[in-house]
Amino acid sequence: MFSRCTSLKEAPKLPAKTATHCCYQGMFSNCSSLIVAPELPATTLDSSCYNTMFWYCTSLTKTPELPATTLAFGCYSEMFYYCTSLTEASCICAETLADKCFNRMFYNCTSLNNITVKFTEWNDTSFYQWVCDVSPTGTFNAPETLKIMYYIDRIPQGWTVVRTV
Question: By the 8 A CB rule, do 72 and 46 touch?
């Protein structure tokens, strides 16, 4: 819809409480001037609904809150791919994961140095390269019960883990 709108600085509102299959896929991809992402209030997600949504949004510095608690296949896959100015990932509120839901979510977000999550366990099919090529140092905020594991499919190597309640 807004893909390649290189002058767009602030996204319009997206008030949907449910995100259907591929509904926002690629919506703001290559919007290189986008600074303010829209709120994403949906708590139930369908497959690939946010896939590549902010792909190559190189001016975006912070993700919107991600309040969804029900995830689906590939729902956040490549969502912030190559968002090289991104420094902070707002809370990922989901506690239950789905296959490929976070695959390459923050791939090559070279400035990203802060991620907050609420999930309490890792899933081998959900995190393929999700933090590949992020900042070499940063803070990973996670629940006490999440196992500390460093890798491009888990917590970025060199980051500090801060435990949350």
Answer: yes
